[in-house]
């Protein structure tokens, strides 16, 4: 049976929007920018999928979208986050989920991470400054792990490690819902 899916995204440089578009196509759903969404809109759907970028450890737009979902009649709230960290940075990603979701929410809201990259050419000025500060802090850090040494070299430039395949765990989860 066709599922009634609304995909909501908050995206600044485009990665999250691209993943949201791929998920929407795959689920034959409806897509909306988070700034146009209300609880009433959500109530017309059974499954809400929200995607936001990682921003200094926080998932951009999650708090507001979750609040709207809790005031809606939709049944499922599924989250995906995009970020510069690679999918195999498991500890970092787990910590990120723990910092963004309360213990009960970690169980109630299925959540998926999708690696993306960085697009300096599309970043707002303040984000560029924040990245510059982060890079210089990482460079100065003593006793860097091998992972940190590699990561600090990568994040000084734009790069794209996104792939359509990374939406599949989320798609498989939604498809398996009764
Ligand atoms: C200021 C800033 C902070 C960021 N913080 C994180 C972070 O904490 N963890 C992470 O994995 N990626 C981080 N990123 C990378 C973004 O999450 C990544 O580029 C994301 O996919 C951008 O999404 P968008 O293209 O939809 O805006 C950060 C990027 C910027 C500019």
Could you characterize the architecture of this molecule?
This protein is of the alpha/beta class and 178 residues long. It folds into two domains: 132 residues, Flavodoxin domain (Rossmann fold), CATH 3.40.50; 37 residues. It is built from eight helices and eight strands. The longest helix has 16 residues. It is elongated, with a radius of gyration of 17 Å. The structure holds flavin mononucleotide. The site of flavin mononucleotide has 23 residues, from helix 1, strand 3, strand 5, strand 7 and helix 6.
* Estimated helix fraction: 40-55%
Q: What's the architecture of the largest domain, going by CATH?
A: 3-Layer(aba) Sandwich
- Secondary-structure-based class equals alpha/beta
Strand segment tally: 8
The number of domains: 2
Rg over CA atoms, rounded to whole Å, is 17 Å
Pick out the low-confidence regions. none
CATH superfamily of the largest domain: Flavodoxin domain
Assign the CATH class of the largest domain: Alpha Beta
Helix and strand run:
EHEHEEHEHHEEHHEH
Largest sheet: 6 strands, mixed
Total helical elements: 8
Enter the CATH topology name of the largest domain. Rossmann fold
Mean pLDDT, to the nearest integer, reads 96
Overall geometry comes to elongated
Q: Strand content of the residues, in percent?
A: 15-25%
Ligand inventory reads:
flavin mononucleotide
The end-to-end distance, rounded to whole angstroms, is 9 Å
């Amino acid at each position: 049976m066709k599922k009634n899916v609304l995909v909501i995204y908050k995206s600044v440089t485009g990665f999250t929007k691209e993943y949201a578009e791929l998920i929407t196509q795959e689920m034959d759903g409806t897509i909306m920018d988070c700034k146009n969404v209300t609880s009433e809109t959500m109530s017309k759907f059974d499954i809400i999928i929200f995607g936001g970028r990682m921003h200094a450890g926080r998932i951009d737009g999650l708090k507001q979208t979750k609040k709207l979902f809790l005031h809606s009649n939709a049944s499922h709230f599924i989250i995906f986050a995009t970020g510069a960290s690679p999918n195999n940075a498991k500890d970092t990603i787990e910590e990120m989920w723990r910092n963004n979701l309360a213990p009960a929410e970690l169980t109630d809201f299925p959540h998926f991470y999708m690696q993306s990259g960085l697009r300096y050419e599309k970043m707002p000025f303040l984000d560029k400054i924040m990245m510059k500060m982060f890079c210089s802090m990482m460079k100065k850090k003593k006793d860097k792990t091998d992972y940190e040494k590699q990561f600090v070299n990568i994040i000084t430039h734009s790069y794209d490690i996104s792939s359509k395949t990374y939406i599949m765990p989320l798609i498989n989860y939604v498809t398996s819902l009764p």
